[in-house]
């Protein structure tokens, strides 16, 4: 590596400082977006969990054959709804989801199962497209506007139709979910089929519903809401975790830039000192030569 002049080192330090200003600004933007997304997430989680609880309770009172979305089949064909971000610069946020999907698909295919993908986010589309995966649908720029139920309703219709027509035997959602402000985790949740879970300790306290017009009619309506809202929650969870991941990534980048500035400043000072010393030696040598 050629020795850098003090001018080159100063330019390098200035370049790092410019990058540091950008990462600081991105961190501030992500922090503001995170606070807003957390409010949306806090309103989403309780409704989602209560909706699942209601579906679970009703499912125990209804014959599974009463609705095609309740029928449980052997999982020979599996759909994965893969939720990533549209942008990068968020550390391992997108790669964690992608690695998990690749691993799961490989494992399922080794078991002789057919796997299809529904892709949310540009990063998922960029990775899986043209690599031999069976892609049912792909959606990019889905976070440009606020996450809304209009979009998830459209996707939910596709998924429910595939399950009803027995084009798939199980549907899973994989996305990142916020644990704390500083941590997130990749989760895989089963969307369909719904398998009612009976808690023997609470079975005597189980809520009894008076339903009109019929259990089946109410359940069908709730199932549609369930699909749409679980997709909605997955996107809200992912978006919130994305802001947290980017905030942390930009914070690390800012600190790393500060460390780089410190190292290059030391190198600059040494180079300047060497330059001064060399000039002094030249002056002394010149003075000696004049004697």
Automatic annotation (TrEMBL):
F-type ATPases have 2 components, CF(1) - the catalytic core - and CF(0) - the membrane proton channel. CF(1) has five subunits: alpha(3), beta(3), gamma(1), delta(1), epsilon(1). CF(0) has three main subunits: a, b and c. It is a peripheral membrane protein. Belongs to the ATPase gamma chain family. InterPro entries: ATP_synth_F1_ATPase_gsu, ATP_synth_F1_gsu. The keyword Ion transport applies. CDD domains: F1-ATPase_gamma. HAMAP family: ATP_synth_gamma_bact. It is found in: Cell membrane; Membrane. Its main location: membrane. It holds the Pfam family ATP-synt. This is ATP synthase gamma chain. Keywords: ATP synthesis, Cell membrane, CF(1), Hydrogen ion transport, Ion transport, Membrane, Transport. Produces ATP from ADP in the presence of a proton gradient across the membrane. The gamma chain is believed to be important in regulating ATPase activity and the flow of protons through the CF(0) complex. One of its GO terms (biological process) is proton motive force-driven plasma membrane ATP synthesis. The gene is atpG.
